[in-house]
Design goal:
Blueprint lengths: L18 H10 L4 H8 L3 H8 L7 H11 L3 H4 L19 E3 L2 E5 L7 E8 L14 E8 L2 E5 L2 E5 L4 E5 L4 E5 L5 E8 L19
Antiparallel strand pairs: 1-2, 2-3, 3-9, 4-7, 4-9, 5-6, 5-8
Helix pairs in contact: 2-3
């Protein structure tokens, strides 16, 4: 309607519509909206808005949901893969923007781990604390990374790496104005029961 504006304009790098996949994959994992939202560190209302297409998820949100649903970011985005190959060519790595981050799929689909090359800009909305089951490994390619693990903050330079339990509260952020580029590998949850590690509220059934 003329003269009216949306309170939340879509960003220029908006993701493809992911709502149908998000809801379908949550149902496939036999998780309630509340259980999935809690495991991802989101409110049920926020996850509901993602599933109905009212909001677009950031890359950290997609990573969290991929872990919980035992899938990959590619599947969450509805990307189709013709076959599973052991080799991923640089020419096949298409950049995807999510919440200010840019990532490239660097691993084969359908595996127990997901490998990404990620560019994190300085001051991006992805600079939030995460806690979830699994393990993460990262390697700094360019720039400097500020990594917070629990109560300790580490500054990683190119060539530095970190391997940690994802149940340790963690946050990654770019130290420098040009951002940071890194290789990132994380384990995928293979069973929805793994979300119980985060402690469901009494009486709630996942």
């Amino acid at each position: 309607m003329e003269g009216m504006s949306s309170p939340e304009p879509e960003p220029a790098d908006a993701l493809p519509v992911v709502a149908p996949q998000l809801r379908a994959l949550r149902h496939r994992a036999s998780l309630t909206l509340e259980a999935a939202a809690r495991a991802a560190g989101l409110s049920p209302a926020h996850l509901s808005r993602l599933e109905t297409g009212q909001r677009q998820p950031s890359l950290p949100m997609l990573l969290a949901l991929a872990r919980i649903y035992g899938t990959t970011v590619s599947e969450l985005l509805g990307e189709t893969v013709t076959e599973r190959d052991a080799v991923v060519r640089a020419t096949d790595m298409e950049p995807t923007a999510a919440g200010g981050w840019t990532y490239w799929q660097a691993g084969a689909p359908g595996r127990g781990m997901q490998a990404l090359r990620v560019h994190v800009p300085h001051g991006s909305q992805g600079d939030i604390v995460r806690v979830h089951p699994g393990e993460e490994w990262l390697y700094v390619l360019r720039g400097r990374l500020r990594l917070r693990l629990g109560d300790t903050t580490h500054l990683l330079a190119p060539g530095d790496s970190a391997h940690f339990d994802s149940l340790t509260p963690h946050r990654i952020a770019a130290q420098d104005p040009d951002g940071v580029e890194l290789l990132f590998v994380h384990t995928l949850l293979q069973s929805p029961t793994a979300t119980l590690c985060l402690g469901p509220t009494p009486g709630e059934t996942p």
